[in-house]
Amino acid sequence: MARFIEGVARIQTTLFPEILDDYIADENPVRVIDVFVDHLNLAKLDFEIYLAMLVGLI
Questions:
Q1: Looking at the whole model, is its pTM more than 0.90?
Q2: Residues 6+ apart with CB under 8 A from 23
Q3: Rounded CA gap, 13 and 5, in Å?
Q4: Domain edges within the chain
Q5: Apex 24 CA angle, 20 and 25, nearest 5
Q6: Is it the case that residue 45 has pLDDT exceeding 60?
């Protein structure tokens, strides 16, 4: 019985990529949609959650 907590081995690999972006190929059309949505003025479109995030309420 060990008296300490053992960490994860550094050579251990993960089953899935660490971030979702690793799943999406560079030439995937969803990247165009992502850029388009990022350039929308959400405040002008009356997205209240976006405004609350800017103020730091969420």
A1: no
A2: 17
A3: 20
A4: 20-55
A5: 150
A6: yes
